[in-house]
Amino acid sequence: MSTKAAPGGAWSQSTKSLIAADRPTLDEMAGEALARPGRLRIAPRGDLEILFARTFAAPPAAVFHAWTDPSLARQWLGAPGFPVIEAASDPVPGGAYHYAVADPAGRVMGWAGTFGAVTPDQGFRATERSDPAWYPGATQVALELRAAAGGSVALITYAYESLPARTLVLRSPMDAGLAAGLDRLAALVERAPPG
């Protein structure tokens, strides 16, 4: 996945976002995102986690609403050419969510899970499994939204069950799909903040 060496990291082929070789904290990720507004920051941490950070020129409440409302998620989730065909979300502790996209050949890929802790307008913790599974095991997902000057910063942590699972994800083009989706999310909440 990496092609061009850079101090402290390597460049991803698909998005040219810096993938750090260090083990950043969420505060460091937030600082990186604020230093490069509107760009997705990606970094592995330890053996099991991938951290993502991105700024939005909208308040945390608007980003949270667009992230958890299925009708709004349909407008931004998925990579280009992979439209959302199923969307359901009940963002309360114990509530379930399920999303599915179709690729250009019509193959369906879904992901689903259950919300654990939910703090409205600030974030959540949830489980996640892909269907069909393309990496082994389940994932623990955490979204934290922090208020920042001119909007907010989203900090997303994916914790995988094994190093091989995390390695498969890092080697995939997920960074390009996620970056494109978050760009659409930004356009959605920045032009007319939902909620």
TrEMBL record:
The protein here is known as: Activator of Hsp90 ATPase homologue 1/2-like C-terminal domain-containing protein
* Stored SUPFAM superfamilies: Bet v1-like
Give the matching InterPro entries.
Answer: ASHA1/2-like_C, START-like_dom_sf
Top-level taxon in the UniProt lineage: Bacteria
The residues covered by the Activator of Hsp90 ATPase homologue 1/2-like C-terminal domain are 57-190
Entries under Gene3D superfamilies matching the protein: 3.30.530.20
Q: Which family does it belong to?
A: Belongs to the AHA1 family.
Secretion signal: which residues?
none
